[in-house]
Give the backbone structure.
Amino acid sequence: GKVYVQFVVDKNGTITDVKAIRGIGVGCDEEAVRVVGEAPKWKPGKQRGRPVRQRIVLPINFKLG
C-alpha cells in the first residue's frame, strides 16, 4: 500500500510539520512519519534565487506480506 506523507522543508533545509495525510493503517502511517522526520536535511526550494519554505507530499510504498 501507499502512505502519503506531507511535510515542510524550511529555508535552511530542515524538515518540519510531518504528518500522514492518507494511510493504510497497521502501523505503516506512524513508521512513514518517523522515517521522514528523522531524514537528513534537504535542499530548500528556491524562488528568484532565494531559499523559500516548500510543502511536499511524498508517497511511500509498503510491501506487506
